[in-house]
Structures are given as C-alpha cells and as structure tokens.
Amino acid sequence: MKMTVDFEECLKDSPRFRAALEEVEGDVAELELKLDKLVKLCIAMIDTGKAFCVANKQFMNGIRDLAQYSSNDAVVETSLTKFSDSLQEMINFHTILFDQTQRSIKAQLQNFVKEDLRKFKDAKKQFEKVSEEKENALVKNAQVQRNKQHEVEEATNILTATRKCFRHIALDYVLQINVLQSKRRSEILKSMLSFMYAHLAFFHQGYDLFSELGPYMKDLGAQLDRLVVDAAKEKREMEQKHSTIQQKDFSSDDSKLEYNVDAANGIVMEGYLFKRASNAFKTWNRRWFSIQNNQLVYQKKFKDNPTVVVEDLRLCTVKHCEDIERRFCFEVVSPTKSCMLQADSEKLRQAWIKAVQTSIATAYREKGDESEKLDKKSSPSTGSLDSGNESKDKLLKGESALQRVQCIPGNASCCDCGLADPRWASINLGITLCIECSGIHRSLGVHFSKVRSLTLDTWEPELLKLMCELGNDVMNRVYEADVEKMGIKKPQPGQRQEKEAYIRAKYVERKFVDKYSISSSPPEQEKKIASKSCEEKRLSISKLGTSEQVRASPQSSVVAVNSDEARRESLFCPDELDSLFSYFDTSSKLRSIKSNDSGIQQSSDDGRESLPSTVSANSLYEPEAERQDSSVFLDSKHLNPGLQLYRASYEKNLPKMAEALARGADVNWANSEENKATPLIQAVLGGSLVTCEFLLQNGANVNQRDVQGRGPLHHATVLGHTGQVCLFLKRGANQHATDEEGKDPLSIAVEAANADIVTLLRLARMNEEMRESEGLYGQPGDETYQDIFRDFSQMASNNPEKLNRFQQDSQKF
C-alpha cells in the first residue's frame, strides 16, 4: 500500500501528520523485513541451484563414462554422448539463469535496502532529534517568567530557530518518505521483471536445444522399438539353444570332450587337465591347457600369461601312463623335462594324445613358416620434416571471443550454409557455425566436431588462438575442394534436411576432399626446404653440445646457481614460492623435494618456443638431423596422410595438418623410422603451442610415448617450452611417467634448472595429491592452482615474451 504524507500537514505538525508518519514508519519497517527475507530466500535458491548444477554435472559425467564404456556399441555410445552434450548445454543455461537471478533479485534489492532505506532511517533520526529539541524549546518558552525580559527574549529566539530548523528537516523527511514510497514500486517490479525475463530466456534456450534433439529422439525411439522386438526374438532363440544343449548333455557323453579345433586361431585343442607338480609333494593342480603355435601351454586364469610346457612339439613324444595309481594319465616328454597330465575320462585322454601326435606331425611340415613370416614384414614408411612459415597472430586485445573469431576471413558467415553473424564454433575444425548447423554438428559426435558457443562459453587463450589461426576459408578449401567439380551446391539457410545430408557428406564421409593431391610446394622446393631444415637442426644440436661442454667445464661454475638464486630467476618471487608450496604441501614428503629451480626459455613470436642452451638433451636430439634425411626426397603428392600430418606438425602448418586429417590421417600415427615419434611430439619440437592444441582437440593422445619412453611432456620439459608444459598438464598428461633412463619430467626440469617448469610440475603434483587425499576425483582442483595455470596460459598465448627470460640470462655467462 502506498503511503504519502502532505507537505502542508508537515508544517502544521498536527496529530494527523504524526499519525501518518507513524503509519509510514511501520510500513517501511515491515517492507524492510519482507525484502530481507526475499533476499535470503534468493541466496538460498541460488546456492541450491548451484548444488543442483554440480550434481547434474556429475550425473552427466556418469553418462559420458557409460558412453565410453559402450564404445563397442555405436548406437548406445552416440546416443549417450549426444544426450550428455545436451545436458551440458542445459547446465550452462542454468548457470546463466542463476547469475542473472543474483544480479536482478539479490544485488538490486540489497542495494535498495542498503541505500534508500538507510537514507530513510537517517532522515528519521534527524527528524526525531529536531522534534525533541522543538518540544524542549516550547516548554522552556512557556516556563519563562514575564518580568525576566532577558530570559524571555532568549527563549523566544531559541524557539524561533528551533521551529525553523524543524520545518526544514520535517520537509526533507517528508520528501524522503514520498520518494521512497514512489521508488520502491519501481525497484521491486524492475527486479522481478528482470528475473522473469531470465526465466524466459532459460526456457527458450532449453526449448530450442531439445527441438533440435527431438527428431533424433524420435528416430531413436523407433529404433528402440525394433531393438525390443529383436531382443525378444534373440531370447527365444537362446532358449531353444539352451533346451537343445540341455537335452544333449543328458543324452550323450560325447559333449564332455572339452576341446575346440580352430586352425584359424592356431589352437588345435584346449581344455582342462590335471598337472602333476615337480615339487617334492607331487601335488596335482587343475589348469587350462591348449596346443597352439606348435607349443603346449597352460594358464590358471584367462588374463594370466600362458606358461609354456613344451616350446617345440617336434622335439617331444607322448605316451600313456599306466604305472601310477591315478586314472586317465599320459606323459609328454621333451629332451629337458617331462610333464605328467591327467584327463577327466578315457575318451579325453585319447583325444589329447591324438592331438599332440597330430601337432608333432604338423610342426615338421610347417618348419619354415616362422622365417617366412619374418621376411614378409613390411618396412615402415619414411618421412621428413619441412620448415614451414610461421602463422600470424590475429588476436586483438580488448575484444570478445566473438569479435576475435569473426574478424578471420570467411568467419563472418556460417561455414556450411553461409548464414551471416554465426554465434557458434567447432573448436577442433576451427570454423564458425549458425545455431542450426551447430545442432547438426553436435549430432555427429565429438569425434567429428566439438561445438561451443562464442558468446555463452568461456574460451581458453590457446583455444581462442587456434580458432584465429584457421577459419572458414581455410577449412572449406580442404573439405570442399571438389564441390565444384562434383556439381554440388551448398545448402541455403532453412533447408534442414539438405544441411544434414551435406554436413554429413562433408565431414563424416569426406566426399568433397581432394584425396589425391596436397596443397604443397613442388618436390624440388621441398627438397631444399627439408635440407635447410636438417642443416638448421644440426647447427642447433651442435650449439646444444657446446653448451653442455661449457656446463661441464670448470669455468662453467658461474652458471651453476644455488636454489635461492634459481628461485629469483623464476616468474615467482621467493616469498610467493614459499607461500605456494606451503599452501599446497599436505605431507612432509612434498617438502623433501629439492629446490634446484632456475631460469626458463620460452617462445618469442606467437607462442613458438626455442631450445634452451643449458638443457642436457644430447642423447635425445643428437641423431635428429640424420633422421630427417631419410625421407626428404619423397614426392609430397604421394605422402601417406599420417606422414603428411607428421611433417606438417613440425612445420607448424595448420592448413596442411587439417588437410592430412581430412584425408584420413591417424592423429596418433607413429613414425617407426624416427623412434616412433608422433605428430604431437613433432609439434613440440616445432615449438608451436597452437599446433599442439590443434592435435589435442582432434584426439591426439597426450601420453603416447616414443621408443625411448618420452611423451610430449618429456620433450616439452627438455626443450624448456613452458607454455606447452602448462597445456599438457591441463590436458591430463601423466607427469609420473619415466623414460628409459628412469627420468620423469620433474627430474628433467630440475636438472635443466627451469624454475617455471619446476614450479608448474610441482604445483600440478601437489594439487593431484591433495585431490586424492580429499577424495576430489574428477574435479579441477584448488582455485590458487587454477589461477596460476590460467596466468601461464595467458602469457604463453598472448605475451610469450614474458616467459622468454632464461635464454637471455644464460647468454650473459
């Protein structure tokens, strides 16, 4: 109810005015209680909603785990992945709703209570004070005696001044009351209207999301009906088979022969036998025996490695054993030992003896098979790494993700249908999409396209940089290379079915990719580029060896620094390191790690990093130049896609990498001629953070190692690439893995005196141990840990020069 007080009544200070004030003050006090209660309820609702989002996210992760578990069932995996993606979108929408609720209800009403009601209370206090002073002045003026002229004059002056002050403050108080009564209506309605609009946006987004999912759910329902019918049919067939086998078990003893002749798998016979042990007690144990690959083997459990009884059946004989008390025994005798076995029946014993004798005869006929198989092994393909042109840094400071990505050529319109102002993106393809095409991409599965919003989602700096390195024009030159030749027209906005068919043909079936040519330089030019790359690598390796000799010489003692000096070279000051390690250190074993940190070398331009002069890695990179020459003279038009991806990863050539993936390259392809190095390892050697991110987004295994046991994290640590180390740790790299020398990345970083990498590895390890001790599996970890890694990611992507200190400091020596 709106309470207003008349200004004229205020000047009269009548009982009617006092009654109106009392009514208004009571109403305002009740209003304050109601608003405080509403704000508290809003806070409780937001907290409960956040807890719901956390629980919902855990449930969604459970669905994704179930989808990964069902990888052998394409229907279940695709459906669960699609549903989990939709639930993730709904979680994002819920989060936005709670943020807007906090701004509209909690913040706005709290501000009204704290600001406007506080002004009302202050005005009330002043009014009450001046009212009391006025009453005192009136009483004093009335009590003064008539014959005391001086006191009469003084009382009259005080009363006049007090009345004047009372009228002024009373008018201000009435003004504050009327303003408050008028403003509270607008504030309450404004906050509630904003709250309702937030709900409207939330339900509209949910409706749009599930409208896109509706046709798929309808098709899945029809498919499920067919599956139910098929399951009932299979159940009837299984029951018939069960009945048939059950009748066979009771009618004949022939089924008890537990052997299976399967020449395709190399298993001649298999089944249970009792084996007499060679110990003093001569105990008998039941084991699963099999004759395979001209050997007699047995195992206790299926997962156990088979134990070989006879390595070569050509050198053994088999005979009956009737001179022991146990029945159905036979003996397999080899030049070095004999094995006493017992079958369950006479028929089984005869079958085993016949199987062994047949295998002995077969082994003589197949004497030369093993050597022939070795001769037929194909040699692995060779490859070389060409040095590529560096990509341009197109990130503009102060702009949003949408503005940065849309300024890339071709990104102002949808990559597939051409609709203007796209607000969605496929992060592994590096393209922008309209909302309808993004829904179709989402239905393809994350192994084909990972969809993210340019306006609603949070973008990591390396991912945003990757989007700016590719773009619609670049990717369409790859995935639509043969569209004009095939006479196919791109779908127009609004053509849903045509879009689905076109997008599936473009990205899943890859019908429009030019699979027989690669947009690369002529072979002669590639030879020159590759030779130049090899020569540069030899020079860098020779410099590396020289720096190692300098470190090993007596004069190099000035380079060796103690732990305090090393920590001063880090991006963190000593006090910060102490507080960080004490904050994360939850057990005394973490404090036992020696602080041998010192210096770092990082990238110079657009995140590409260079080899530090003090890293002891001769054993790792010394033969690199020689390996490069083996495949320099291959014609690039006949490169296999895996080798093309391998070479382009070192060259930092994202378009050529995308082309190789489109042509069917395995992102985890290993070059057997170069220590089984992968494209991700080549990207580390090339020094590009964006190249590594591109491979990881397209399914590269961050823990795949070469023949020396070194994974991408090992190589990045040896080379001093702090940005790549930070990226790999965020993407789940195993920092506990050791190479063939028994070194993990932390020990390598400590030996190389890379303070920042040591700090990252230690913080990641401490955070991991904290989460394990507290049972926080699957969660990102402490906020301090996340903030530190976020800062390193920002520097590595946008300001790599801040990390490029170690090389400059080492050159002083």
TrEMBL record:
It is found in: Cell membrane; Endosome membrane. Residues 117-147, 217-248 form a coiled coil. Pfam families: Ank_2 (PF12796), ArfGap (PF01412), BAR_3 (PF16746), PH (PF00169). One of its GO terms (molecular function) is GTPase activator activity. GTPase-activating protein for the ADP ribosylation factor family. GO terms for cellular component: endosome membrane; plasma membrane. ANK repeats lie at residues 675-707, 708-740. The BAR domain mediates homodimerization, it can neither bind membrane nor impart curvature, but instead requires the neighboring PH domain to achieve these functions. PH domain binds phospholipids including phosphatidic acid, phosphatidylinositol 3-phosphate, phosphatidylinositol 3,5-bisphosphate (PIP2) and phosphatidylinositol 3,4,5-trisphosphate (PIP3). May mediate protein binding to PIP2 or PIP3 containing membranes. This is Arf-GAP with coiled-coil, ANK repeat and PH domain-containing protein. SUPFAM superfamilies: Ankyrin repeat (SSF48403), ArfGap/RecO-like zinc finger (SSF57863), BAR/IMD domain-like (SSF103657), PH domain-like (SSF50729). The gene is ACAP2. It is a peripheral membrane protein. Keywords: ANK repeat, Cell membrane, Coiled coil, Endosome, GTPase activation, Membrane, Metal-binding, Repeat, Zinc, Zinc-finger. The keyword Membrane applies. The keyword Repeat applies. Residues 266-361 form the PH domain.
